[in-house]
Write a structure and sequence with these properties.
The chain is an alpha/beta fold and about 270 residues long. The chain has one domain (about 5-255): Aldolase class I (TIM Barrel), CATH 3.20.20. Helices cover about 45% and strands about 15% of the residues. The protein is built from 12 helices and 9 strands. The chain has a 9-stranded parallel β-sheet. Helix 2 crosses helix 4 and helix 4 (about 75-85) runs parallel beside helix 6.
Length: about 270
């Protein structure tokens, strides 16, 4: 069992998202440590990108600040190495595929593993790239995290999840991150789709903003990914305060999960 799987298997896991280098490497590190202290089961770390098409305004601004601070894939791996010196929390790297292909998949996989990355989720890996992608990551001991969205077919889910690792990331809804649309139509069906093809824990993200959202998701899945709400809370925060702000935000959500329903019955 991988570290990501082990961290999420008990249920009620919280996975905060942070963009590396936002607004500086030091502020990112402080926020990451605060999130861990607040009760994060794992961290999702975003690689800064100049055109984060899947993200809403809050995380787009986060990427812009990170890019202005010199953020990129190299800097992200360096910051994860620094984090690893102070915390053993599992880390899943969230990236668009182009920076990885520019570095070279083999080089990326080796460097990510050396930096202390546990898993990798690329939002836009094409079907043609999938065989090499999964094989190279797994060959370096990295979990290739699979994304299941509203338009993922039964056949594609089965093919992807055969090679997936760590956990299954299920989108709460279509659209971009951070929008206020609370509709999660079809979420239960997508979680069921993931469970039909995988024994891995399920984490749900996109549009989870409040303790109430988290409770609803925890009734279906083992993990909740929270990004835009945390980034919004951190916007404008001084580096010296980032740790305390992140700690308080995550602790509030994590404590609210104490009364959530057990989801382990669907995941042997």
């Amino acid at each position: 069992m991988s570290r990501l799987e082990e961290a999420l298997k008990p249920g009620r896991g919280l996975i905060p998202y942070l963009t590396a280098s936002d607004p500086s490497p030091e502020a990112f590190l402080e926020a990451a440590l605060g999130a861990v202290e607040g009760g994060a089961a794992a961290l999702e770390v975003g690689v800064p990108h100049s055109d984060p098409v899947a993200d809403g305004p809050v995380i787009q601004r986060s990427h812009a600040r990170a890019c202005e601070a010199g953020g990129g894939l190299d800097a992200t791996l360096a910051q994860i190495s620094r984090l690893r010196e102070r915390s053993s929390v599992p880390v899943v790297l969230f990236t668009y595929v182009n920076p990885v292909l520019s570095m070279g998949l083999g080089s990326f996989a080796a460097r990510a593993r050396a930096a202390g990355v546990d898993g990798v989720l690329a939002l836009d890996v094409s079907p043609e790239e999938e065989p090499g992608w999964f094989g190279r990551l797994a060959g370096e001991g990295l979990d290739p995290v699979v994304l299941i969205g509203p338009h993922t077919s039964e056949a594609r889910a089965g093919r992807l999840l055969t090679s997936g690792g760590g956990f299954v990331y299920v989108l709460a809804r279509a659209g971009v991150t951070g929008t206020h649309d609370s509709s999660r139509e079809g979420l239960a069906e997508r979680v069921a789709l993931a469970r039909r093809h995988s024994r891995l824990p399920v984490a749900v993200g996109f549009g989870v903003r409040t303790p109430r959202d988290a409770r609803e998701v925890w009734s279906l899945a083992e993990g909740v990914v929270v990004g835009s709400a945390l980034i919004a809370r951190l916007e404008g925060t001084e580096t010296r305060s980032a740790r305390a702000v992140a700690r308080a935000f995550v602790a509030d959500l994590a404590a609210d999960g104490a009364g959530a329903s057990d989801t382990s019955g669907g995941t042997p």
